[in-house]
Design a protein that fits this description.
Layout (H helix, E strand, L loop, with lengths): L4 E12 L2 E12 L3 E5 L6 H8 L7 E6 L2 E3 L4 H6 L2 E4 L11 H5 L16 H13 L17 H14 L7 E5 L7 H16 L3 E5 L3 H7 L2 E6 L2 E7 L5 H9 L17 E9 L6 E6 L3 E5 L6 H9 L5 E6 L2 E2 L5 H6 L2 E4 L3 H4 L7 H6 L7 E2 L2 E2 L1 H14 L16 H13 L5 E5 L7 H16 L3 E5 L3 H7 L2 E6 L2 E6 L5 H14 L1
Parallel strand pairs: 3-8, 3-9, 6-7, 7-8, 13-20, 13-21, 16-19, 19-20
Antiparallel strand pairs: 1-2, 1-4, 4-5, 9-10, 11-12, 11-14, 14-15, 17-18, 21-22
Helix pairs in contact: 16-17
Length: 503
């Protein structure tokens, strides 16, 4: 006999202007189950989570906890009833330390009015919360900005679990593994299973099918803001799940034909940074150079270092022209464009329209005598949005109303509006659903075929096998192996794991 539902959502609806984001959504999450929520970018997954968290005021419907109606517009009341959230952007304040972040929204306990905060007790609370996750921070007073991706995720989960000094009834996690290495994903899933076994109801959003099939008991599929299916995970195949999500069978483009290489476009010599050590490589026109490696290998530093976002040693030349270190403005001038891995914190400009987000890197192109030629700007931006199949194609909507996959396409449009010769792509499909991912892959291949030089840093072996002509395998800040020829997922995974063992 199945467990009763802890969280019940009925007929939930949400509109943004003329766009319907959620249309009569029903959802049940049972006690002691892990329930996956899947769908394309733009299907309504994150909108549903934000509606339940009180970020969006709903236009219709209701939510109940243990059968009792809950006012989801009151976020504090919702949390006090036992619904806890770990959002995709984690909602941490970088400038504050771990203790302050854990107490956000509650206020730290005091021993009396106007008395000092009992820092020691709050610190002990944070240590205990982190210990339940298997974490121990060396310095709780350090700004959260200095924590690793896995530590930040752990802190956000610890905050959710200990909010209001009570255990959760429902945990809702939106893409919690997006920035985690494989070992940390395993640790997180072990924690979620232990919570499930104590009776906690867990709702998890993931774009990774291997995670959905590994961790979930049931799965709800959203498409175009509506529920199109609820399945026992063991009773559905990956192909059936893709078809339910997309409304069609996925037909990937055949692997691209590797064109003969053009001249050397980019050359790096003795490149070094905080992690990188004495790296040498060349990239040809029309080539996609993949960069593989586990977290901490130097892979995640390379693209930003090349673009000038951090201090470096060594030299980089583009078409024989030296690129000065620490000068992103000059890197852009000579033809480089850079897509950072963390679009939420380092790319998307909230509060601005899609048009403004695209054109901001190249505004001088549209200025005449200090006056913005908005008509020309809008025409160019709309052309790029159409080419990348951004939905909706309205450049005047706030970028925050777009799904994650469409936001990522807008960031690609921002790169292309500068008419670059070299693209530095760091995790270009992170947090992107399978349909949007395929569209981004196709665009990257088309750009390489047009003669652009592309450096692709990715933790996804499947992505590298699909796109790269060559792959540099990083370990300990150095290139320890170069993979060429037909590239298989197993070969790439083995190369990176082998280096992990050696390290």
């Amino acid at each position: 006999m199945s467990e009763p539902a802890v969280l019940t959502v009925r007929n939930l609806s949400k509109r943004f202007g003329h766009l319907t984001a959620l249309n009569g959504v029903d959802l049940e999450v049972r006690r002691g189950e892990i329930h996956a929520l899947v769908g394309e970018n733009g299907s309504g997954k994150s909108t549903l989570v934000k509606a339940l968290a009180g970020y969006h005021r709903i236009d219709g419907g209701e939510a109940r906890i243990d059968g009792e109606l809950v006012d989801i517009a009151d976020a504090r009341a919702t949390e006090s009833r036992g619904i806890r959230f770990v959002h995709q952007d984690l909602a941490l304040v970088d400038e504050l330390d771990s203790v302050s972040n854990l107490g956000l929204g509650e206020g730290a306990r005091t021993s009396g009015i106007f008395m000092p905060i009992r820092r020691r007790r709050e610190s002990d609370r944070v240590r205990a919360a982190l210990a339940t996750l298997g974490y121990q921070f060396s310095d709780l007073g350090a700004p959260v900005a200095e924590l690793s991706a896995s530590q930040r995720t752990a802190l956000a989960i610890a905050r959710a679990m200990s909010a209001h000094r009570s255990a959760p009834k429902v945990m809702i996690l939106d893409e919690p593994t997006a920035s985690l290495p494989a070992a940390e994903v395993d640790r997180l899933f072990a924690l979620l299973r232990s919570l499930r076994d104590t009776g906690v109801a867990i709702l998890i959003i993931s774009h990774h099918f291997n995670e959905v099939f590994d961790i979930s008991d049931r799965v709800t599929v959203l498409r175009d803001g509506e529920v199109v299916g609820v399945h026992n995970t063991r009773d559905i195949t990956e192909e059936e799940l893709v078809k339910a999500m997309l409304g069609r069978k996925l037909n990937p483009r055949p692997s691209r034909t590797r064109a003969s290489l053009g001249p050397v476009m980019l050359a790096a010599s003795a490149l070094s940074g905080d992690m990188l050590k004495d790296l040498h490589f060349e990239v040809h026109a029309g080539e996609i150079l993949g960069i593989a490696g586990i977290t901490g290998s130097g892979r995640e530093e390379l693209a930003g270092l090349m673009f000038g976002d951090m201090t470096r040693a060594g030299s980089i030349s583009l078409g024989g022209r030296e690129v000065p270190p620490g000068r992103p403005d000059l890197a852009k001038t000579v033809g480089m464009s850079y897509l950072p891995a963390d679009r939420h914190n380092n790319a998307v400009l909230p509060g601005l329209s899609v048009r403004e987000n695209v054109s901001i890197t190249n505004l001088s192109r549209y200025l005449v005598g200090g006056i913005l030629r908005k008509g020309v700007e809008s025409k160019h931006v709309s052309s790029l949005l159409r080419a990348l199949d951004v939905r909706p194609i309205d450049g005047e909507v706030d970028i925050e109303t777009l799904s994650g996959g469409n936001q990522q396409k807008v960031m690609l449009a921002r790169l292309l509006i500068t008419r670059p010769r070299i693209l530095l792509l760091d995790e270009p499909t992170q947090g992107v659903d399978i349909g949007a991912r395929e569209e981004i892959y196709n665009k990257i291949e088309d750009l390489a075929a047009s003669g652009l030089c592309i450096v692709l840093c990715s933790c996804e072996s499947e992505e590298l096998a699909r796109l790269a002509d060559r792959i540099l395998v990083m370990s300990g800040g150095r290139c320890v192996e170069t993979l060429t020829g037909p590239l298989s997922v197993d070969d790439i995974t083995l190369a990176t794991m082998k280096r992990r063992v050696a390290a």
